Structures are given as structure tokens and as C-alpha cells.
Amino acid sequence: MEEKTVMNVPIVLQIPLRTLLQGIPKNPKPKGYGIILRWKDS
Questions:
Q1: Which end of the chain is least crowded, N or C, by CB within 10 Å?
Q2: Domain residue limits at 32
Q3: Pair 7, 13: CB distance under 8 Å
């Protein structure tokens, strides 16, 4: 059940979650990517 829940989570949410888990984002523009992903999702 948990695996299905994780797979149901869209990549848009998976990327920010990984960034938060890492603590320090490697990308200089993590917010920019979030906006682009949200725009594509919507």
C-alpha cells in the first residue's frame, strides 16, 4: 500500500521532497524548477 502511495505522488512533489530531505539543495534555482514543474502540472 505504501509503495502505491509513493508512486501516486507526482514527480512535482517528489523533487521538492527530495530537496528537503537532502537539506541543502544542490541546484542554484530550486524554486525556478518548482515553478516550471507546477506550470507543466497545471
A1: N
A2: 2-41
A3: no
What's the confidence (pLDDT) of residue 38? 63
Q: Please report the pLDDT score of residue 13 as a whole number.
A: 74
Cβ(39)–Cβ(12) below 8 Å = no
- The rounded Cα 34 to chain-centroid distance in angstroms is 7
Q: Report the C-alpha gap between 34 and 30 in whole angstroms.
A: 6
The number of domains in the chain is 1
Alpha carbon of 13 to those of 1, 37, 39: distances in Å? Answer: 19, 9, 13
Identify the band that residue 42 occupies on the pLDDT scale cut at 50, 70 and 90.
low
Give me the phi and psi of 20, to 5 degrees please: -65, -40
